[in-house]
Amino acid sequence: MTRNALSRRAILIGGTAVLAAAPLQALAQAAGPAIHVLKDPDCGCCSAWIEILENEGFAVTVEPSAGAELMRYKLLSGIPEEMASCHTGRIDGYMIEGHVPVADIRRLLDERPDAVGLAVPGMPYGSPGMGPESEREAYDVFLIRRDGTAMPYSSYRAA
Fold first, then answer.
1. Could you tell me if 116 and 78 are in contact, meaning their C-beta atoms sit under 8 angstroms apart?
2. Is 23 exposed, middle or buried (0-12, 13-18, 19+ CB in 10 A)?
3. 47 partner at 20 to 30 Å CA-CA among 5, 18, 64, 76?
4. What is the CATH number of the domain that holds 64?
5. Mean per-residue pLDDT for 67-73?
6. Average pLDDT of span 130-147
7. Could you tell me if 93 and 67 lie in one domain?
8. If we measure between CA atoms, which residue out of 45, 33, 30 comes closest to residue 94?
């Protein structure tokens, strides 16, 4: 009799735990895509870009990195030196280099091209995290191909 009571109790406790965890699973599924970003811990523009991603529903994790260590990571991940910027993200198998707009990241994830990822070389003023869009300078977002070449993916005119 005790054995059956424990079994019923275990089933009830287990069922309660599953029901209690269901909202957490729904919350995790509701969160946007997960992106892991390597950045200099003292860089404010990188933090501003990360905040934009978070406000757009991305689940962002951050790893401090700087100097030669960060550049080595970029190069080993397939980002050509001429495409480099101040921070590097990895999302769903793609690299995101620099101040890439959210719309371009979402497009990349929708289209799923055979590529390394996207880059906004340098730090163009008015790109996400780099000052007001209303004062934006013209810049391009590049698709980095697996052979290391890059082609324009989207363009943003000066404001």
1. yes
2. exposed
3. 76
4. 3.40.30
5. 95
6. 96
7. yes
8. 33
Q: Which of left, alpha, beta for 112 (phi over 0: left; psi -120 to 50: alpha)?
A: left
14 shares its domain with 51: no
Query: What does the pLDDT look like over 111-124, one tens digit per residue?
Result: 999 999 999 999 99
One domain, residues 59 and 111: yes
Phi, psi for 138 (deg, rounded to 5): -65, 140
Do 62 and 130 have their domain in common?
Answer: yes
The verdict on pTM exceeding 0.85 is: no
Same domain, 92 and 112: yes
Angstrom distance (rounded) from CA 148 to CA 115: 9
Give the bridge partners for 37, in sequence order: 62, 89
Provide the 8-state DSSP code for 106.
Answer: H
Is 36 in the same domain as 24? no
Angle between helix 102-111 and helix 44-55 axes, rounded to 10 deg: 60
Return the pLDDT at 43.
85
Give the domain range for residue 25: 1-30
